[in-house]
């Protein structure tokens, strides 16, 4: 984890040093949405869960192929498109999401096992056009899993992302 972070920092420094002073910042790195982090607890005190998406905001061009990767080892994740109003704002909202809200709906759409153990029957749920463009599009990522998806949403739109398993994992894509 720490090693990886340092690696990224070094790459960033190298890219800045190599770039001409007035050029727009460009990158050849493939667009990636990653699930990062892990969880720990202190007995009878608290649980701390640092699982998250690697960015809060992804600015990506319509038509881009997005690489998806889970860098966590313990639990699966989803990259799910929801409405802004679906995004939980409190712990109480998590309960609503799991109990009949968008988390429960998408869990069903994925064909997740009832006991929560094992992979879903449908790792990919697609609504609307092929790719990420509308509420209900959802990709399940196994621990350490990878995938890719085309950003099919139109330029100017915003997609709100949620992991339906860890509903504090929230991000958005602004489509250029
Ligand atoms: Cu997650």
Automatic annotation (TrEMBL):
InterPro entries: Cupredoxin (IPR008972). Keywords: Signal. It comes from the Bacteria. Residues 1-23 form the signal peptide. The keyword Signal applies. This is Blue (type 1) copper domain-containing protein. It comes from uncultured Solirubrobacteraceae bacterium.
């Amino acid at each position: 984890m720490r090693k990886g972070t340092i690696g990224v920092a070094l790459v960033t420094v190298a890219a800045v040093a190599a770039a001409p002073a007035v050029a727009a910042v460009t990158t050849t790195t493939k667009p990636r949405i990653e699930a990062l982090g892990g969880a720990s607890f202190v007995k009878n005190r608290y649980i701390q869960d640092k699982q998250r998406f690697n960015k809060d905001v992804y600015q990506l061009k319509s038509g881009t192929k997005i690489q998806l990767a889970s860098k966590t080892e313990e639990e699966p994740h989803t990259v799910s498109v929801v409405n802004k109003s679906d995004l939980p704002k409190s712990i109480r909202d998590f309960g609503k999401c799991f109990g009949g809200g968008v988390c429960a709906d998408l869990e069903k759409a994925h064909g997740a096992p009832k006991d929560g153990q094992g992979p879903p029957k449908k790792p990919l749920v697609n609504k609307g056009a092929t790719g990420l463009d509308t509420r209900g599009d959802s990709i399940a990522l196994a621990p350490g899993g990878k995938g890719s998806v085309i950003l099919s949403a139109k330029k100017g739109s915003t997609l709100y992302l949620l992991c339906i398993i860890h509903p504090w994992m929230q991000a958005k894509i602004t489509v250029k």
